[in-house]
């Protein structure tokens, strides 16, 4: 084997490492914001049946336009959306990549407000899109005035607002989305990966009459379907047409489509634990206060916890005790996913012991 540095790789990729959180097999995994409750058995059986019926047809390419699944996403999102206004891909990371392929690229720019999702700069780099991250306001919040002012000043080709925001948990209301949309002429992406946990309204209700607005969603978090790799979005039909130009043919496999169709038929059961996860999130916030820590306001299924003198030491100590959390590199903080009641108890108990 040769060394990566010896290959004629793109100059801008030289010296880079693959992105991704450590995948360690420990009992309590609170590091990547999955729904830790898993899939109800009755739903799992229905998914298996749907998959089984596809297997004998795998010699054929799948429906390239996955119209049935898109119709289900439209019905799930409501607000009178039709199948032609929705789109899906292998995780919302692929949705975002397709958006950058279609609306970014050389000579185009993307803008976001950090700290935010660390894949945005990666996707910008892969698609040769200039990327700028402006700071969020106090306590990682965003106001409509600030957002509008910055978008008007920078005029990006693509602006991404993550709502609720990963890794801070903070959220914006639709007034900020409206102000952002009106402030510039580019594509406005609202990344709603955690929308099901939020008490704020979805930007889906703003889509009518706003052809440059894209709402990105995923089945990876609240839907307990991270392993299936299904992300989706809603937007004007013309935006869908743009993504259909850059997508690879048959990008969504017949098995992925089948699994997603079955899971969506059981949406209420798949989402049944969302309330319980919010209870554990709020319990975590309250209990962390007793340990001398504080959490940023969260509308997601995780909290950004502040007050660690040495986050890496605490990360390692928790790991040694069978709990993995995430150090996202914000000084004195760790990001912790809200899990089951038992997992949250284990996390809080170990944290109390570690902090003495
Ligand atoms: C987890 C996450 C995603 C996407 O995940 P997929 O598994 O690719 O759907 C997108 N945006 C944010 C902010 C996330 O945290």
Task: State the main characteristics.
alpha/beta; 15% strand; 356 residues; seven-stranded mixed β-sheet; 2 domains; Aspartate Aminotransferase, domain 2; 12 strands; 12 helices; globular; binds pyridoxal-5'-phosphate; single chain; 38% helix; Aspartate Aminotransferase, domain 1
What would your notes on this structure say?
- This protein has 356 residues and is of the alpha/beta class.
- It folds into two domains: 100 residues, Aspartate Aminotransferase, domain 1 (Alpha-Beta Complex), CATH 3.90.1150.10; 227 residues, 3-Layer(aba) Sandwich (Aspartate Aminotransferase, domain 2), CATH 3.40.640.10.
- Helices cover 38% and strands 15% of the residues.
- The protein contains twelve helices and twelve strands.
- The protein has a seven-stranded mixed sheet, with helices on both faces. Strands 9-10-12 form a three-stranded antiparallel sheet, covered by helices on one side.
- α2 packs parallel to α8 and α3 packs across α4.
- Pyridoxal-5'-phosphate binds next to α3.
Please summarize what this structure is:
The protein is an alpha/beta fold and 356 residues long. The protein has 12 helices and 12 strands.
């Amino acid at each position: 084997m040769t060394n990566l540095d010896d290959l004629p790789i793109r100059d801008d990729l030289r010296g880079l490492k693959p992105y991704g959180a450590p995948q360690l097999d420990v009992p309590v995994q609170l590091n990547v914001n999955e729904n830790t409750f898993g899939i109800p058995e009755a739903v799992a059986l229905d998914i298996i049946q749907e998959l089984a019926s596809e297997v004998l047809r795998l010699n054929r390419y799948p429906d390239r336009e996955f119209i049935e699944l898109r119709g289900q996403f439209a019905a799930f999102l409501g607000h009178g959306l039709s199948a032609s206004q929705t789109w899906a891909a292998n995780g919302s990371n692929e949705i975002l990549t397709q958006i950058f392929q279609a609306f970014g690229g050389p000579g185009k720019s993307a803008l976001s407000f950090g700290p935010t999702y660390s894949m945005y700069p990666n996707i910008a780099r892969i698609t040769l899109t200039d990327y700028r991250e402006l700071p969020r306001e106090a306590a990682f919040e965003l106001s409509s005035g600030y957002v509008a002012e910055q978008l008007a000043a920078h005029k990006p080709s693509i602006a991404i607002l993550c709502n609720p925001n990963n890794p801070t948990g903070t959220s914006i209301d639709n007034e900020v989305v409206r102000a952002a949309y009106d402030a510039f002429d580019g594509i406005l992406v609202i990344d709603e990966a955690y929308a099901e946990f939020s008490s704020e309204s979805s930007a889906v209700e703003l889509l009518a009459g706003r052809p440059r607005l894209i709402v990105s969603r995923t089945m990876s978090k609240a839907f307990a379907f991270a392993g299936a790799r299904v992300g989706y979005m809603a937007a004007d039909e013309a935006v869908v047409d743009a993504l259909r130009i850059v997508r690879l043919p048959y990008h969504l496999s017949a098995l992925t489509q089948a699994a997603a169709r079955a899971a969506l038929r059981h949406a209420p059961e798949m989402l049944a634990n969302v309330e319980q996860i919010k209870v554990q999130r709020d319990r975590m916030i309250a209990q962390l206060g007793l340990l001398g820590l504080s959490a940023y306001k969260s509308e997601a299924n995780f909290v950004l916890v502040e007050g660690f003198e040495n986050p890496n030491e605490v990360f390692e100590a928790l790991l040694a005790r069978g709990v993995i959390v995430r150090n996202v590199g914000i000084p004195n903080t760790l990001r912790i996913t809200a899990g089951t009641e038992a997992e949250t108890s284990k996390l809080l108990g170990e944290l109390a012991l570690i902090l003495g």
